[in-house]
Amino acid sequence: MSKPFFRLLTELSSRKWVSQLTGALARSKISRLFIPRFAQTYGIRIEDAEKHIKEYKSLNDFFTRRLKPGLRPIHEDTTRVVSPVDAMITGIGDIKEGLIVNVKGQDYTIDELLNRSPRTVNYNNGFYFVLYLSPTDYHRIHSPISGDILEKEHVLGKVYPVNEFGLRHMKRVLSRNERLITFIQHATGEVAVVKVGALNVSSIQYVTPLPKTLERGQELAYFEFGSTVVLLFEDGMFEARPDLKLGSKVKMGEDLGCFLDT
């Protein structure tokens, strides 16, 4: 089949009601029967889960599982920014005059990604990470820095896939999909954490209660299926760890880089 045909099928299936229906099934009690097969199919380490596999009440309950304490240590140097998720880096680099260039062959404007927020001006020449979570990964999202939540926004949108096919062949999925945007103020600078929904993501949820002040590694939100987090840093404020590149895999709490002295 041609790429245009696959694109058409994805367009037709990427409707919110499809994800809502899938989500309802994943939250049903009957779905717990699929947990062992799901874990086996995606190679999920069930021994890392906080609870025994039989204790999860639904597939969604298992998918949004917490891990056993200590499995994701937070980098000990408090001057370092840490990864908010377990993920693969599918985009990394400088933001150039408000443009994220060549994420799987496509460019994105910061203005569009942040839903034309007045804060966009802070990031026009900053730095970005695109972090993709596969179904195999741990799906809770943590704060990359210690700081205060300045602002948060829920942007309604589509639920296109954010995997290799979606990023490469669908039109600018990161800025067209549903998003939760959180701006966090650190002592040195501001960071935007953009949580991007995807096909079969029934929702993106903040933890409750959501504190106004976060510590590095503290839970912030979670996905109810595989998706993507985009991290944005202000102009001239951040330097990435030099060995990180496209395709690198990171764990929550792992060092991503540091704020620059100003």
Keywords:
262 residues, alpha+beta, three-stranded antiparallel beta sheet, 7 helices, 19% helix, globular, lipid biosynthesis, pyruvate, EC 4.1.1.65, PS_Dcarbxylase
Low-confidence stretches: 5-14
Question: Sheet with the most strands?
Answer: 8 strands, antiparallel
Structural class: alpha+beta
Strand percentage lies at 25-35%
Succession of helices and strands: HHHHEEEEHEEEHHEEEEEEEEE
Instruction: Count all strands and give the number.
Output: 16
Widest beta sheet: strand line-up: 11-7-8-9-13-5-2-15
Number of helical regions? 7
Structural shape: globular
Helix content: 10-25%
- The radius of gyration over CA amounts to 18 Å
- What is the first-to-last residue Cα distance? 53 Å
Mean pLDDT: 85
What is this entry, summarized?
With 262 residues, the chain is of the alpha+beta class.
Layout: helices, strands, pairs:
Blueprint: H1 3-13, H2 16-27, H3 35-42, H4 59-63, E1 80-82, E2 87-94, E3 99-103, E4 106-109, H5 110-113, E5 127-133, E6 140-142, E7 147-155, H6 164-169, H7 173-176, E8 179-185, E9 190-196, E10 204-206, E11 213-214, E12 219-223, E13 227-233, E14 238-240, E15 249-250, E16 255-259
Antiparallel strand pairs: 1-16, 2-5, 2-15, 3-4, 5-13, 6-12, 7-8, 7-11, 8-9, 9-13, 10-12, 14-16
Pathway: Phospholipid metabolism; phosphatidylethanolamine biosynthesis; Lipid metabolism
GO molecular function: phosphatidylserine decarboxylase activity
Protein name: phosphatidylserine decarboxylase
Task: Provide an overview of this structure.
- The chain has 262 residues and is an alpha+beta fold.
- The protein is 19% helix and 31% strand.
- The chain has seven helices and 16 strands.
- The strands form four sheets. Strands 11-7-8-9-13-5-2-15 form an eight-stranded antiparallel β-sheet, with no helix packed on it.
- The termini are far apart.
